[in-house]
Design a protein that fits this description.
The structure is a single chain. By secondary structure, the protein is an alpha/beta fold. Helix 1 packs across helix 5, helix 3 packs across helix 4 and helix 4 runs antiparallel to helix 5. The strands form two sheets. It has an eight-stranded mixed β-sheet. An eight-stranded parallel β-barrel has the order 10-11-12-13-14-15-16-17, surrounded by five helices. The radius of gyration is 24 Å and the shape is globular.
Amino acid sequence: MPRYQGLPASPGIAIGQVLPYRPQKITFTEHRIADPHAEWQRLQEALHKADTQLMALQERARKIAGEEEAAIFEAHRLFLIDEELLARLRTLILDEHLNAKAAVHHTFEQYAEALLGLEEAYFQARAQDLRDVAQRVMRCLEEDSDQDSLETWKEAVIVVAEDLTPSDTIRFDRQKILGIVTARGGPTSHSAILARAMGVPAVVSAQFDLNDIRSGTLAILNGNSGVFNVGPTLHELEVARKEKTEWEARRQAELKEAELPAITRDGAFRAEVVANIGGVEDAEQVLQFGGEGVGLFRTEFLYLERSTMPSIVEQVRAYRRVFEILDGRPLVVRTLDIGGDKEVPYLGMEKEPNPFLGWRAIRMIRERPDVLQNQFSALLQAAGQVIAEAGKCDLRIMLPMVSSVAEVERAREIYEEARAALQAEGKPLPQQVQFGIMVEVPSAALLADHFASRVDFFSIGTNDLTQYTLAVDRTNERVSALASPYHPAVLRLIEMTIRAAHTQGKWVGLCGELAGDPLAVPLLVGLHLDEFSMAPSSIPTIKQLIRQWTLSACEEVAQRCLQFSLAAEVIEYLKSQTPR
């Protein structure tokens, strides 16, 4: 029977009958309308109705999943009052006399496609949110009530769908859902976030045809490995049941000890285990899973879906909120990393032949120094205000996509200028701010000894470092299998970076997916990586694994890994190792 390999989205193992889920999509016919003002009024009423529905879902999410998950629907409500979206809708209906459903579809789809064109999976996943809201508004235009309840199933099932919206996911009755599997979507989608918050095992991007999945078929869903096994053998069922029992016991133990530090069994090494976050709403999850801070705070959310630069006041407000939640724990903020693949006219971006190698991130510094200057100013002001009120705040600023020492020196100059200007105004400022760079292109790793004298820390971005070292576009399905962070060339660059930093007394973090991979724990500890940064839900597992190893055993594992010539050899060797 078929086994589908997807991506783990929410940990856990589910065994039960499957239920193919096909939510009805609202369709439309495009046409010109005779009374555009009446059509615009009809849309206003639909937007109001959609807002009321989202408020109800927000309250449901607050009760079932938590305050931060409820914020997903608050963000959906913001789409309904977004000035740029409304302006586009107004133009299509009032000026071009387009019918409202077509106008909603075209407007929201334009923004969704723009997000899908971005490199980072986090922003690609936001496209599903826009489409979710568009469908809701179109449904309201039909004067249809909200979707029928999804809680009519008699027994708990594994829900199988092409894709799921956050609205679908939060409406499921937790008692009736064993797990969730989708053919599309990513682990950073809001549906995946909600599944994790609800404690529902989930696999995404499993590449099945929903027409091949028969309702009632017994299946195994493994949210840890990403495997979806439909119609398993008796032996496979027996193995899965045993694995499920063991995993549940292990997870309970991990969560119980999530607050404990990640110190190796022999007490010879301590790692800082922190989280990657993409917005204010993610910050509370860091504490929930025992994170010791944030190793990567993506700031792009402040710049997308708008027509003007975010003001310093807006930025200060967002950064302050995260500082307050972290309550003095380290916060590594990555300055703006928007690539040339996204049309952001107010930043002067244009279409480029190779956008991931083009005008992006720190490379904007020559033509648009004001972007970095404003961000530095906002971060310093937010940190200064929090310190003035609460007395503690640990700001660490990190530059992305650095490939030249000159870029760091110029950024430092801009930082000092921003700081001096705020001092002259008498603003409260943090006494100490760490200044670091991401190591995500080979030139940064190869020149790590030169960079180390100019910064306080490195954070290795293994996703991009792998892509650029191996010359593999990891979004290209035909070659993405070649992009393994376990490739010996990548491992040698990681080792070289850590060694160069430690020689000059600087610390090194790693914020790529490798940091949250249990298989990599002895390898990275053996290389003396100081900070592991990952999805918040992975933190308890990685902390406990670190506590099971001794430093000497990890050093032995790491040195052996550096001697292989193939990624497959490294992976097979690591699989054969057990904590000692």
